[in-house]
Amino acid sequence: MKPKLLLTMLSLFFATSFAENEPDTANFNVLHGSAYYNATRTPGEAPSVFRNIYSPYLMYGSNLVTLSPTNGYGIASYTSGERTSFAAYMNNQVMLGIATKSLGFSFAFSVGEKLSFFEERSVYHKLEVDEIVGSSRNNFSLRLSLPFTSVDFTTVLRYSQSNNDSSNTQAYTDSKGKSTKEFSRHGHTFGGNLTFTNRPVAKDFTWSLGASATRYLNTLDSSYTSTRDPDENYDVETRSNQDYTYINLFYNFGNIVLKSKNGRVHVGNNTSISANIYDWLKDKENHRMDYYLQGAISFTPHILAEYFLTENWMLWGSSYYTWSSSALREKYVEHWEIKGERRNNLMQFSTKTGVPYMSTGARFNYKSVTLEAGIEAGMYSNPFRGFDGKAIAYDFAGIITF
Predict the structure, then answer these.
(1) Best-predicted range by mean pLDDT (44-58, 118-132, 213-227, 323-337)
(2) What is the DSSP letter of 283?
(3) pTM of the full predicted structure?
(4) How far, in Å, CA of 211 to CA of 209, rounded?
(5) What is the C-alpha to C-alpha distance for residues 23 and 115, in angstroms, rounded to an integer?
(6) Residue 376 burial (10 A CB sphere; 0-12, 13-18, 19+)
(7) What percent of the chain has pLDDT above 90?
(8) Structural domain boundaries in the chain
(9) Is the terminal CB of the chain with fewer CB neighbours within 10 Å at N or C?
C-alpha cells in the first residue's frame, strides 16, 4: 500500500469537522470487530467483540455471531434471562464463558494438539524403542472480570506446556535380563495477571494499569532400570539452565484531545517495565554459580482518529511507535577451597527503536449486519522510505446481532 494513500486518509481525520459544534460522542460506542481492536492501542477505544470477550462481564446482554476469514476466529453469544453464554474459537483455542451484569468468567483450552508416535522392535538387536513427541502447545486459562463503582477489574490465570515435550523408552533384553532407559522432557509455564481500568466512568481521559507474572520451568527426567546390573540403576531429574520468572508492570493512558459531532482524536502512551529473573545456575565442575537478571522498559506513544462519514459508514486511522531500553546483569561466584571466593559482575545496556506502524480501516453497518475491514503496515526505520512490504496485515470480519 502506498504511503500517500494512508497518510491522506489520516489527514482527512484531522482536517474534517473539528469545528465548534456541541460534542456528541454517543454514536462512537458502536460495536467493532478485530480490525478495529488490533489497530488501537489506547485504553479508551470504542467497544469491540474482542475487548468484551477479554473482560467477560462486558459480554452480558449481547446476542451476536462474528466471523473473520482472515484471522480464522468465530465468536457467538446468547442471552437468556439474566445470563449470557458465549463461545469462541481463536488461535487454535476454544473459549467458553458466562456473563452476568456484575460478573463474568471464561475458560479457554487449546485444541491443536498433535502427537507423533514412533515404535521400533528389533529382534536381531533385541531392542525395543517407543517415542512420543508433542508438536503443539497445550494452553489453559481462566479469566474473571467484574465492575466496581469506578473501575473494572480483570484477572487471568494461565498454564501451558511447551511444544517440545517428548518421552522416549528404550528396552534391551537378552538371556542375562532386561535393561530399560527412559527419558522425558517437559516444559511448563505458570502465570497470571491483574488489570484495573477506569473505563466505566471515563469521559475524555482513560487509563489502565496492572501487573503480570509468569514462571517458566523445563525439566528432563532420566532413569535406568536393569535386572542385569541392579547397581547401575538411577533416577535423575535435571533442571534446565533457562528457568526464569517474568514480571511485568504496565500503565496505559489515552486522552481525547479533539472531538466534534462526527469525529474525535485520541493521544496517549503505554508504558511497560519488565524483568526476567533467571534461577541460579550451579556448575560444580568449574566451581561457580551464575545469576542473570534482564530488565526492560518500553514506551509506546499512539494516536487514534475516528470519523463518521454517515450513519452507516465510519473510518478510523491509527499509528504507534515503540521505544525500549534493556539491561542485562550477570553475576557469578567462584568457590575454591584454596583461592577462596571470587565475585564477578557484568552489566550490559542496549536501546532498541522500533518502526512506526500505521493502520486504517472502515466499518459499515446496516440494521443488524456489520462489516469491518482494516490494513496495517510497518514503515522502514527511515520513514521517508515508505512502508516495508513484509509487514502488511489485513483484517476482515463480519458481525450479525440479534
Answers:
(1) 44-58
(2) E
(3) 0.80
(4) 7
(5) 58
(6) buried
(7) 45
(8) 3-401
(9) C
